[in-house]
Structure formats: C-alpha cells, structure tokens
Amino acid sequence: SYFNAQLQKLIDELPSSDVDPHKERACLNECERIVQSYLSAFSTLEYDRNQYLNEIRSHNQLVSSQLNELKETGAHLTNSIHDINNELNDKNISNLSEIKLHLVINKRFESLLATLEKHDIQDDTLLEAQFYSSLSNFVEDFFNKKSRRLKIHDIISSIDYHYTLEETGEVVTKAQSGGTTATISAFVLSILLKRIIPHYISLSFPIIVDEIGTLDSYNTDAAIKQIADHGFSIFCATPQFSPSVSMKVGRWI
Q: Along the chain (253 residues), what's the average pLDDT of each consecutive run of 10 residues?
C-alpha cells in the first residue's frame, strides 16, 4: 500500500503519456510496468538535457545577433550625427563658434537599448518572459510587417540644431537671423546630399537664402561658396540693396 501510494504520487506530479493515472493497479507486476516506463523515459535524461541546453544556446546566439543589429542602429545614429557635426564645424558662420545637430531618439527605443545592456544572452539560460514580451511589443509597433525591417525615421522623435554664441558662450536653441538660419540649413543639406549622391552625378538644386544681407562679408562669401560647391543654385533676398551681395551672387533685381 505504501509503495502504491508513492507511485501514485509520482504519476500525479510527473504525468506520462504511457501511464494512465486513473487505472487501479491490482498487483506488483502492473506497478513494475509503470516503473519500467519511467526508467525508460529517464534513461536519456542527460542526453535530453544537453540537447535542451544546446537549443537554448542556439536560440540565444540568434537573438543576440538580431539584438546587436538594434544596438548597432543606435550607435550608427549617434556616429552619423557626430560626423555631421564635425563637418558642420569646419565652417565659420557669423558669430557662431559651434553648431551641433541635436538628435532625440524615441523613448521606447532608448528603453529597449537600456534593457539590452542589462542582459547577458550568451549563456545557456533563457531570459525572463517580460523581456521577450517587451521586445515583441516593440517589433510589433515599429517593424514593417512585410519587409520585417526597422525604419530609422520611426525611432527618431526629433532633430534640430543648437549653436554657441562666440562672444558669450551661450548655447542657443532658436534661430538667430534669417541669413544665419538659412546658411546653417544650407550647410546641413549640402552635407547630407553629399552622403547620398554618387560622385559621378552632378546636381543642381535651387535654394533661397533670405536676409543674406544680415551676414557679414566673410560669412556671406562662406555661405555662397558652400551652397554653390554642393549642388545648389542660390537665390538670395536682402532687406536692402547690397552691392557686395549683388556682385557675389550675379544677376539681381
């Protein structure tokens, strides 16, 4: 009776497809058949465990490589902005000592990257279900359903520029003047266009610079040269007639 009770406890706690948990056992032979069934099932336990751990490692390697792509995306954005800022600051614009594009990443993408940094998925243990749930929700909301790709513009909340006033060192986040704003915009556009247009293509693209007369002579030269060198046809407007601007730009009304 004791043995039978212990065997029933095992059957209840560890169900097997080969054992009927409701069948009454009339003799020890029937008990022995059940014991042999469990012995057979557990004879490959070590092998099955190793296979299971190998499958977890394979799964983790796959997930890790895919998550590394997300990490690289975040790094690519940061590096691209850094490179553009370096190119921007090769130029001298009016009284601005430093111009920087300011990138704001989608909060959910930032949160996901922060979560990834906290987890090590190189070993043979599975991460908690909450991690996969948050990752699944992010993929569902941000990845294209057909191409299964992440679009960069979907994870960028905003991008604008800040600049530092040379005289005071003050960091300003709003436009200073029409001429300065247009010149900075032209510089940014020219740098971006240079990155996407093959070297064998010549581009002519109109751009209107308003209030260029508010710039000093040095920066007027820099703005016109930068704009012309990178594929723009420049059209300028000034608050009042400026002989120097008229001479540098060409035809005028």
A: 87 86 82 88 89 90 83 86 84 68 87 77 79 86 84 85 74 66 74 81 78 74 74 82 85 86
Tell me the three state secondary structure of residue 88.
helix
**Which residue type sits at 137?**
N
- Structure token digits, residue 193: 């266009």
Say if residues 162 and 102 touch (Cβ distance below 8 Å).
yes
Q: Which residues of 138-147 are buried (b: 16+ CB within 10 A; e: fewer)?
A: beeebeeeee
Q: Are strands 156-165 and 96-105 parallel, antiparallel or unpaired?
A: antiparallel
Task: Give residues with Cβ within 8 angstroms of 252, minimum separation 6.
Answer: 245, 246
Count of C-beta atoms within a 10 Å radius of residue 116: 17
Give the integer Cα–Cα distance in Å for 111 and 105.
10
Which residue reads 């940094």 in tokens? Answer: 117
